[in-house]
Design goal:
The chain contains 28 helices and 7 strands. It is mostly helical and 646 residues long. Among the domains are: 144 residues, no CATH class; 79 residues, no CATH class. The N terminus and C terminus are likely disordered. Strands 6-5-7 form a 3-stranded antiparallel sheet. Strands 1-2 form a two-stranded antiparallel sheet. Strands 3-4 form a two-stranded antiparallel sheet. Helices cover 50% and strands 6% of the residues.
Length: 646
């Protein structure tokens, strides 16, 4: 009968926990069943208890945590690198814009992401202090709490600041907070770095998240059949490799080409990189979780080369270093601590042999269950959130996040799309005058170029920009509606088509669209991808009247920002009011400039007197307003003084 019970339990164990066996090295439960007294008939409840007992015991096994300790020290160094190298570039972007683009869920928490100079200064110093403290093992939990808050603030600053690896860094802070104190304090205040196995396992699975979800995101037509967007980047990628090798890559390609054209070489390279990246993303996690050390070391070498290429091709800031550091969780420590127990008299346990002492693992007593419960809740959210884009488009490629960006945030969609296009907005006055303006948002020099460049292809950012225009026109005493009059976008080399519905009011869509679980915008203000209607097809080349449209757009921007031009020499001198620097309330044309004593030039006076802000001279305008948005628009204020004549 015991043999039947053993086989039944093994069958249930194999069918229900095979994946967990690969991840957690759970052994056979037959020993547990053999040692259970009074078990004469097999029942599902008894076997479930056996499995649950073994699983609970395994998760709380005491393991060597030196890998986690090394990772914690290195993670502190990564925080210092991020604060010293990456964060200043974001601060420079915020200093050179009048608007930040919020996104869900941070747009609903105004204090998060406030870009004031004092907040940014404190943010950088906090990360430097917390990273240094964590790197040396001094007050690690305090350092992790401060790092979590600071990284949340960074993530909420602006849509162009968002990166998946910042989400990873925040979650790493949360899991390290749940780690055992002896591991976090090693080697400064603790001689032994130990922790329960569930803490090591959760960190390992989190570090593997970018691989696994990145591989799933690549399972689409563009990546598999068209090798896009790698094909679009192939020329630049080969060029960077050739520069790094001193010209040897070009020589090798010439030797291997044997008559092949450049286009054929680029296509072959693109397909090789695409499928190699897909296989690495899907197979490296399985290899790193395997018990065989040689396989884990081989996978680590492959991952090291993979991240070196990513660093060379795309930069990616601290992310490649963080992923390389994560390999220490699989290569250092992790062994289960084994202790010997004294021999037990045979009279007390007749069913057990007593010829030699028994061996068992040292286990942690779960004094506090809330860390494990909190990590489990985070894991559930972490696993479900990346799949919300499937709920939006339901398998229809016309609703794909490659086209609409819906569901792409917090989903580990990395380097899988390249979009390009242009956009013209039509702003209509809601009064009896029925005035109408045409704007090219990509050439709004009051924004940072990195922000303006996303507007033609990012629906969420465009909706925020439409609200920004509403504020600008309200300051001029005009109530307006904003429409995407003409748009043309190409994604991953597909034929260009219109992205935005020309008749849809963007201000109406902005009210609900920024929520994470909001319904899709396709059909309301976005067109489906791959539409066959000839009216939706377009050409990425500028139209014949592009110069006239750009001149009109420049004149409108000059009028909208007229009350800002001569009050401050730099955009960063204007104080932030939430996520904008635009003063609240109505500002009559020329009033702000007339009251400003910082600029008394003839150009400023002339501009103040112009009701429509049509300055015939841009010499008195600040430097940011003299950036050329259209080099041939000689009469536009954005044109530099030394611009060539028409």
């Amino acid at each position: 009968m015991k043999t039947v019970i053993d086989k039944s339990c093994r069958c249930m164990y194999s069918s229900h926990t095979r994946a967990l066996y690969v991840l957690t090295r759970v052994g056979s439960v037959s020993g547990y069943v053999k040692s259970t007294a009074g078990l004469s008939v097999f029942t599902p409840t008894s076997c479930t208890k056996a499995l649950g007992g073994e699983l609970h015991a395994m998760l709380f096994d005491e393991v060597d945590g030196r890998g986690v300790a090394v990772f914690a020290r290195g993670y502190g160094v990564c925080l210092v690198y991020f604060a010293h190298v990456t964060l200043p570039s974001y601060i420079e972007r915020l200093d050179n814009t009048v608007l930040t683009f919020g996104y869900a869920p941070f747009s609903h928490f105004p204090p998060l992401g406030h870009p004031s100079p004092v907040a940014l200064w404190l943010l950088q110093r906090t990360l430097l202090f917390a990273g240094t403290s964590l790197a040396i093992g001094l007050l690690p939990r305090c350092a992790l709490c401060l790092s979590t808050l600071a990284l949340l603030h960074v993530l909420a600053l602006d849509r162009i600041v968002y990166n998946n690896h910042y989400v990873l860094m925040i979650e790493l802070c949360a899991l390290l907070l749940a780690a055992d104190e002896r591991c976090l304090a090693w080697p400064l205040r603790s001689r032994r770095a130990v922790l329960p196995y569930w803490q090591l396992l959760s960190l390992q699975l989190l570090v593997l998240t970018p691989y696994f979800y990145g591989g799933l995101a690549k399972l689409n037509r563009s990546w598999l059949l068209d090798a896009e967007p790698v094909r679009t980047w192939a020329d630049e990628m080969l060029g960077s490799m050739d520069d790094a090798s001193g010209g040897h890559v070009a020589q090798a390609l010439e030797h291997l080409a044997r008559g092949a054209t450049d286009a054929e070489l680029l296509t072959a390279f693109a397909f090789f990189v695409s499928y190699a990246g897909l296989l690495i993303d899907l197979l490296v996690p399985l290899a790193l979780l395997h018990r065989a050390r040689w396989l884990r070391c081989s996978a680590a070498l492959v991952a090291l080369g993979f991240h070196a290429c990513n660093r060379l091709w795309f930069g990616l800031g601290v992310f490649p270093y963080l992923c390389v550091l994560g390999l220490s969780l699989f290569l250092v420590g992790g062994q289960v601590h084994v202790v010997e127990q004294a021999a037990v008299p045979a009279s007390r346990h007749p069913a057990r042999p007593t010829s030699k002492p028994a061996e068992s693992t040292r286990r942690f007593a779960p004094r506090r269950r809330w860390p494990a419960v909190a990590v489990l809740a985070l894991a559930l959210l972490h696993c479900v959130l990346p799949f919300r884009h499937l709920w939006r488009h339901r398998g229809d490629e016309g609703y794909s996040s490659l086209w609409t960006e819906e569901g792409s945030l917090f989903a580990w969609h990395m380097k899988r799309v390249e979009r390009s296009g242009w956009l013209a907005l039509r702003v209509l006055a809601l009064d009896t005058t029925l005035r109408e303006w045409t704007l090219i948002p990509e050439t709004d020099t009051a924004l940072h170029p990195a922000q303006a460049g996303f507007l033609p292809v990012s629906p969420t950012m465009l909706l925020t920009y439409a609200q920004h225009l509403q504020t600008l026109y309200a300051a001029r005493g005009v109530n307006v509606s904003v429409f995407a009059h003409d748009s043309c976008v190409s994604a991953n080399g597909r034929p260009a088509q219109r992205l935005f519905v020309a008749a849809a009011d963007l201000l109406e869509a902005a009210a609900t669209y920024d929520r994470i679980w909001a319904p899709t915008g396709v059909g309301s203000f976005l067109h489906e991808w791959g539409a066959t209607s000839p009216t939706l097809r377009c050409d990425l080349q500028p139209a014949a009247d592009a110069e006239a449209v750009q001149r009109a757009s420049d004149a409108t921007f000059r009028w909208l920002y007229g009350h800002l031009l001569f009050s401050r020499p730099h955009k960063k001198d204007w104080p932030w009011r939430g996520r904008t620097r635009i003063p609240a309330g109505r500002t009559p044309a020329g009033a702000a400039m007339a009251s400003c004593a910082s600029d008394t030039s003839d150009a400023a006076a002339e501009g103040a007197a112009e009701p429509e802000g049509r300055l015939s001279n841009s010499r008195g305008a600040p430097a940011w307003a003299r950036v050329s948005s259209f080099v041939h628009a000689r009469n536009a204020i954005w044109t530099p003084v030394d611009a060539p004549p028409e």
